[in-house]
Write a structure and sequence with these properties.
Layout: E1 8-13, H1 14-25, H2 29-32, H3 43-54, E2 66-69, H4 71-91, E3 95-98, H5 102-118, E4 131-136, E5 139-148, E6 151-155, H6 174-185, E7 193-197, H7 198-206, E8 211-215, H8 220-227, E9 233-236, H9 247-256
Parallel strand pairs: 3-6, 3-7, 7-8, 8-9
Antiparallel strand pairs: 1-2, 4-5, 5-6
């Protein structure tokens, strides 16, 4: 993790993190990513929370440089994640996996999807092909809900213009809301566990589904959700590294969960 900069000194800057904390404190939807927090989270409270959950500096006067994630906190959260994955496998509940970072994290979730399917869990794929309108920095754009190796993602228009990336980078909770609403409308199974990031985790947790997440230090929403009981586990780690760097973490989770890979 340290060599790949998934924890330790990470690529995310303190300036990025503080900007996200300010947006969250102002209840900006771009930072809430589907969460409706119960508490009054000001910037100081968010810094204190992120220091406790991730290991970033608790000093509000620290305003520049690269942020830091404590690798011991990452490992502890991965262990807790493994416990929830193992519990899902034992009970055989349906699971839903989705990512707003498909070009980075798709492989991590796909490994978990394969193992959970092999353990007898149904990996859900509701609303495949459904259109979802998501607000981006370029305005409102229509995306298509798709699944790759059992992992949900949003595809934007003209994927060939993005260098062959598997899907769009999005923080929006609209894809998971669409997927869950479609599953309910069809009268099919609903997930007993949602595994994802960004809006996939926060959106599901806010609706009352058990959710576990990966999250970077500039995304306070999942950690607030964990603190308020909406999310079961949030793993702090850099979410913009090379996709291959996350595969050892997936194998670690499966080993801890005593599941085959």
């Amino acid at each position: 993790m340290l060599a790949a900069r998934l924890s330790g000194t990470v690529a995310t800057t303190r300036e990025e993190s503080l900007r996200s904390y300010r947006l969250f404190a102002a209840r900006d939807p771009r930072a809430l990513i589907g969460l409706d927090p119960e508490g009054a989270w000001g910037q100081r409270e968010l810094i204190e929370l992120m220091a406790a959950r991730c290991g970033v500096s608790a000093d509000p006067r620290h305003v520049s440089g690269h942020d830091v994630i404590d690798p011991e906190r990452t490992l502890a959260a991965l262990d807790a994640c493994a416990e929830r994955v193992a519990a899902a496998a034992r009970s055989g509940v349906p699971v839903l996996l989705g990512t707003g970072h498909p070009h980075r994290l798709l492989g991590f979730y796909a490994v978990l999807a394969d193992a959970l399917s092999a353990a007898g869990c149904e990996v859900l794929t509701p609303a495949q092909g459904r259109c979802v309108d998501i607000t981006t920095r370029f305005g409102l754009r229509t995306h298509t809900l798709d699944y790759v190796r059992g992992v949900a993602l949003a595809r934007g228009a003209h994927p060939e213009r993005r260098g062959g990336e598997p899907g769009a980078h999005t923080h929006s909770p609209l894809p998971v809301r669409t997927a869950l609403a479609a599953a309910a409308e069809a009268g099919g199974p609903l997930p007993g566990l949602v595994i994802g990031d960004h809006g996939w985790a926060c959106g599901a947790g806010q609706l009352g589904f058990e959710a576990i997440a990966l999250a970077d230090v500039n995304d306070p929403a999942p950690f607030v959700g964990e603190a308020e009981g909406c999310l079961s586990v949030v793993v702090p780690l850099e979410d913009g590294a090379r996709s291959s760097h996350y595969l050892p973490l997936a194998r670690y989770v499966l080993n801890r969960a005593c599941l085959s890979q």
